[in-house]
Amino acid sequence: QVQLVESGGGLVQAGGSLRLSCQASGGTFSSYGMGWFRQAPGKEREFVSAISSSGDSTYYSGSVKGRFTISRDNAKITVYLQMNSLKPEDTAVYYCAAAQDHINLVPWLPKRGGVDAWGQGTLVTVSS
User: Fold this and answer.
1) Alpha-carbon span 9 to 114, nearest angstrom
2) What is the mean pLDDT of residues 38-53?
3) Shortest CA distance to 32 belongs to which of 77, 89, 88?
4) pLDDT at residue 29 greater than cutoff 90
5) What mean pLDDT is predicted for residues 39-63?
6) Mean pLDDT within 104-126
7) On the CB side of 101, how many CA atoms lie within 13 Å of its CA?
8) Which residues contact 10 (CB under 8 A, 6 or more apart)?
9) Angle (CA) 58 70 114, round 5°
10) For residue 90, which phi and psi values (nearest 5 degrees)?
C-alpha cells in the first residue's frame, strides 16, 4: 500500500508560478507511475499530467502542455508539478495519484488497471 500527501498549494497571481509536491510512503515508490489530477469548483476531476516509474515518459493534457512540467525524485520519494504562466482557470484542488502502470492514469490510453492511491488534495487559487 502507498499513501500520498500533497503540498505546495496556495494563492498566486495570474502569470506567476507554483510548484506542487507529492510525497509517498508505505509502498515501493520507484515501481509506481505517478500523476496529477485537478478538480475545479462545480466541475469533474480532470487529468493534468502523468509520469512513468522511471521518469522517461511524460504526458500532459492540452490545457497545461507547455506551461506545466512533471518530474520525480525517487531518492526523495517525491513527485513534483512545476506550474508556470498560471491562469485563473487553473484554480482547482490538485490531487496526486499513483498506479502500478502510468498508462492507467492517462485518459486517452487503454486501461489495464486502475488508480491505486489518491492524495487528499492541495488547493491552488490563481487570482487576476
Assistant:
1) 26
2) 96
3) 77
4) no
5) 96
6) 94
7) 9
8) 18, 123, 124, 125
9) 60
10) -80, -10
d(CA 38, CA 116): 17
Q: Find out whether 122 and 22 touch, Cβ atoms under 8 Å.
A: no
Write the burial class of residue 1 (CB in 10 Å: 0-12 exposed, 13-18 middle, 19+ buried). exposed
DSSP category for residue 105: G
C-alpha cell recorded at residue 19: 510548484
Q: pLDDT-derived band of residue 57, with 50, 70 and 90 as boundaries?
A: very high
What is 71-111 written as a DSSP string?
EEEGGGTEEEEEE-S--GGG-EEEEEEEESSGGGG-TTS--
Residue type, 35: G
pLDDT number for residue 111: 83
Could you tell me what percent of the chain has a pLDDT over 90?
A: 85
